């Protein structure tokens, strides 16, 4: 059964995220925000679902209130990350490990250099998605002056600053923390460094 109100759906999602550390935004089989708000898993796109508006409101509230970062972490799907794992996420993102950079195209490398140089770049397309899925940048949805949405790629040092993430972890510790959280969702194989090994 769908939750009665946006506030109740938000509370339930915050509670679930507190327990697990990670949560899919949308997945038909794994624990997700969309299933929690709708009261049952949604097959296909959630945008046209009767609970779509409430799902959107809950997702926005979580991000706006600093209760989750949204990143393409598990199986390249948007994943909610609880604040207790932010230092691990950012530390992995900043590591520039081989699985992140070795197969980047020249276009993606140029875009990454621009993000590194300026801290924030509005971008879309394959290179933008590649950088976000490799955790080399944080992709944020922003409102444009024209009222539409756009994606901005944000350098991790800028995320550290705005989210006040002080702790720095070595890459192995950071990855282990995220793997432990992913185990709770039976989703370790979907982490990008694990997927990369399997390719």
List the keywords.
single chain; 199 residues; alpha+beta; 3-stranded antiparallel beta sheet; 6 strands; 15% strand; globular
Secondary structure elements and pairings:
Blueprint lengths: L5 H15 L1 E3 L8 H6 L13 H13 L4 E6 L2 E5 L4 H9 L3 H4 L4 H13 L1 E3 L3 H8 L4 E6 L5 E6 L1 H8 L7 H13 L8 H7 L1
Antiparallel strand pairs: 1-3, 2-3, 4-6, 5-6
Helix pairs in contact: 1-3, 4-8, 4-9, 6-7
How would you describe the overall organization of this protein?
This protein is α+β, with helices and mostly antiparallel strands and 199 residues long. Helices cover 48% and strands 15% of the residues. It has helices at residues 6-20, 33-38, 52-64, 86-94, 98-101, 106-118, 126-133, 156-163, 171-183, 192-198; strands at residues 22-24, 69-74, 77-81, 120-122, 138-143, 149-154. The strands form 2 sheets. Strands 1-3-2 form a 3-stranded antiparallel sheet. The chain has a 3-stranded antiparallel sheet with strand order 4-6-5. Strand 5 (138-143) and strand 6 (149-154) form a beta hairpin. The longest helix is centred in the N-terminal third of the chain and has 15 residues, at 6-20.
- Taking pLDDT < 50 over at least 5 consecutive residues as the criterion, the unreliable ranges are none
- Report the average pLDDT across residues: 92
Element-level helix/strand string: HEHHEEHHHEHEEHHH
Distance between the termini: 39 Å
Report the C-alpha radius of gyration, rounded.
17 Å
Strand percentage: 5-15%
Count of DSSP H/I helices = 10
- Strand order, largest beta sheet: 1-3-2
DSSP strand count: 6
- Given helix and strand content, the structural type is alpha+beta
* Overall body shape: globular
Kindly state the percentage of residues in helix: 40-55%
Question: Biggest β-sheet: count, sense, barrel?
Answer: 3 strands, antiparallel
């Amino acid at each position: 059964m769908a939750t009665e109100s946006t506030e109740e759906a938000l509370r339930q999602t915050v509670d679930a995220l507190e327990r697990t550390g990670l949560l899919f935004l949308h997945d038909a089989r794994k624990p997700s925000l969309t299933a929690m708000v709708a009261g049952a898993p949604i097959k296909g796109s959630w945008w046209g679902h009767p609970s779509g508006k409430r799902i959107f409101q809950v997702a926005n509230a979580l991000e706006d209130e600093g209760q989750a970062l949204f990143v393409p972490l598990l199986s390249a799907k948007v994943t909610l990350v609880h604040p207790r794992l932010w230092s691990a996420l950012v530390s992995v993102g900043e590591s520039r490990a081989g699985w992140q950079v070795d197969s980047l195209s020249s276009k993606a490398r140029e875009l990454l250099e621009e993000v590194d140089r300026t801290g924030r770049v509005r971008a879309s397309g394959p290179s933008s998605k590649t950088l976000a899925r490799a955790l080399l940048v944080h992709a944020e949805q922003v409102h444009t002056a024209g009222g539409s949405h756009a994606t901005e790629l944000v350098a991790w040092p800028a995320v550290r600053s705005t989210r006040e993430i002080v702790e720095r972890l070595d890459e192995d510790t950071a990855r282990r923390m995220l793997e432990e959280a992913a185990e709770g969702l039976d989703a370790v194989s979907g982490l990008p460094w694990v997927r990369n090994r399997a390719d």
